[in-house]
Amino acid sequence: MVVRRNRSDQRTVNDRPYKGSYMKEIVLIKLGEMVLKGLNRRTFEDVLIKNIKYRLRDLGKFEIKIAQSTITVIPASDDIDLDDVCERIGEVFGIVTYSRACVCEKDFDDILAKAPVYAADALSEAKTFKVESKRSDKRFPYKSPEISAQVGGKILSAFPHLKVDVKNPDVIVTVEVRDYAAYIRYGTMRGQGGMPVGTSGLATVLISGGIDSPVAAYMMAKRGLKLNAVHFESPPYTSERARLKVEKLLSLVSRYAGSIEMHTVPLTKIQETIRDRCPEELFTILLRRVMMKIASRIADTTGSGALITGESLGQVASQTMYALGCTDAAASKLVLRPLIGMDKQEIINISRRINTFETSIEPYEDCCTIFTPKHPRTKPVLKFVEIAEREAELDEMIEQAIADTVVKTITP
Ligand code: ATP
Ligand code: MG
Asked: Which of 70, 175, 203, 281 could disulfide-link to 306, CB 3.0 to 4.6 Å?
């Protein structure tokens, strides 16, 4: 969560008066797991920078640099709201922490003068503080402990009510002396973690309008997967508004996952045929197998390496171990089920945090909720499911549904 800093009387990034001029503010970003990636590290960093640029593209122009596992985001003009920038950065995978920082010359007097002014808002409300220093430019003539001691002294004389607490301070002011400049920062924010979207390849999420599948999409994008999506609809049993709801969910997910190509597949004819020709207790499992077959084909044509679903063991009749086994057998791709071991409440907690919950609970129908059997098989046997499927003669209809698929790109 971004702690918004701009007060109504503070308009821009450079709006903290200092010696008659303004202090330049930037955002410093610390990278996550990808720091461990050895030789591939450059690729990971390049993808992350590309993703950050994508998320910031409509907020203005920025210079983005990387050195020593830290990315600096430098606004090119002073009318850019850094709170907006931080909110976006907080949604990009591959970032552990980030913070706003004030730029200083690599001159100790400049650092000493700016630190109490820059952190004034937080320091005036705090009771305790400490200063931490990092000197990655070893040519800087003062060592870290001395930087901390002197900056701490300046802060104490500017805010005599404060006490130093090295164990559990209200505010930590950090001074970083790096290659191009020195920075002062406080109020570090936690990023999403995970790996930059795109570094693990492309996968296809089966997205419904429910709570689970947007969470599943988010979780796999967090592991570096770029997403495309397949949504099945059965008009007129399902409405246009139901599809718009799914588009809205994907748009919310794309804040984290980047743009998502959505493939909407009409299933009306197939569902009616299953209803007319198959035993009622197998309706759902047969439908789920059709979904897997079509999604696998779409994955193939789009270069996607896996399917993603929001299934969770035992949640409904079609998600018993036996039902999932029958569903899985119809897929020709690896199926990723990140929610498989999670309780509904755990899934809901994530969906609230990523802001999809309120949309997910809007009451629209899904093709899974029409023609639902009164007593679905919880232990379907693959052999009998396959016999029922053959009798329904769905192959041509599956080809037609794929041909009638509509593709649309969804963005944040
Ligand atoms: P969700 O909250 O994701 O809808 P659910 O608990 O309602 O999940 P099901 O309706 O059985 O469970 O669906 C299980 C999974 O199948 C979903 O998470 C999703 O991946 C996929 N799925 C269900 N309906 C559709 C649909 N209309 N289009 C695409 N995929 C679907
Ligand atoms: Mg559902």
From this structure: 203
